[in-house]
Amino acid sequence: MADSSLVPPTPETPVTENSVEFNRHGFLAFLASPVGRQILLIAALLLIVIGVNEYSSYRAEEKASDWLTSYNGVMTTNIVGPIKADFDPKSVPSPLAVVPPTPEPTPSAAVGNATGTATGADGVVTAPQTPSAPAANLSPTPTPIPTPNAEEKQRLKEQLQSIRDRIRHHAMVMAFFFEAYYVAIVMVMFAGVIAAVTLFFIAQKGWEHTSNYIETVFIFMSAVVAFYALFPPVFQQEKNITDNKQLFLAYKALESEVESYPVTHRTIKNEPKPAADFINHIDSEMERLGNIALGFDITKINYSEAIQLNQKKPQENAQGTPSPSGTRRRR
């Protein structure tokens, strides 16, 4: 048996410039083929769709930010920064704190009024006097509400912080779904127009006599329309926008109520409340409004009706026949 060590090794094929040139020409030949041109067309369409999607998303995000900022004013900027909540009565004076106290009568004067006599400054009792009738328009002085103590002020600051966090949360969720809804509408309109134009050429010559490139564009854009048209119903974008908008506005009203309490000592319904009762009132309102408004509906995934999701079908009667259309009455 021959020794294997004497078998000369197989020389490796060197990589030459001719092989590299052959691979380059092969790749270019593939791109020049009908399949290669179809792939290039699909890649170009995909880049166009991505570009339109990114631009519409940028515009939607910019508009949502501008609208929220213009609605909230300075407070929107302060939401992401330091919270300025000062419940110090020295910096925010209360109207009830500046009301002068009513002077109380001295005991001698009170006794004199009860017996019908008056005592002078020197202690001499004067003649009895007929007591005058009390004025009808006098009303008792309301009892001033005590100023919140340190613990109550700290709790009010914490409540205001929580309210502003929830405002920011619902604003971000509302802006997110608005952006997605805006992008879906733009993409359906953009791809639908191109699909309609290509369908016109297909209808003129028929599918068999139409260029393969036109057919590729029609199929690709129809798929884009079907994809983006399912976003609003499946992710319930309209409902999520509406629910988060309502919660956003409700928390904004609650924020104003907490900010106004150090000045008015009243609720938003003009009801006077001590600090402890007001804190309980805010806690109950936050519990009532507490909700994570996110909804999805997977049952809406139906590509056969992706373009006509909101259109109602003609109703049928019990026998399964179409309902009769309206007819003119004979005069």
What does this molecule look like?
It is a single chain. This protein is mostly helical. 58% of the residues lie in helices and 0% in strands. The chain has a domain at 45-96 and 147-308. Helix 2 packs antiparallel against helix 5. The model is unreliable at 80-119, 121-125 and 313-331 (pLDDT under 50).
Q: Name the poorly predicted regions.
A: 80-119, 121-125, 313-331
Q: Output the helix-strand order.
A: HHHHHHHHH
Overall pLDDT confidence: 76
Distance between the termini: 117 Å
**What overall form do the CA principal axes indicate?**
elongated
Q: How many individual β-strands?
A: 0
Number of helices: 9
Main β-sheet description = none
Helix content: 55-70%
Radius of gyration: 40 Å
Residue fraction in strands = under 5%
Oligomer: single chain
**Class by helix and strand content?**
mainly alpha
Secondary-structure map with pairings?
Blueprint: H1 17-32, H2 34-72, H3 74-79, H4 107-115, H5 150-205, H6 212-229, H7 231-234, H8 237-264, H9 275-289
Task: Give the tags.
331 residues, 9 helices, elongated, disordered C terminus
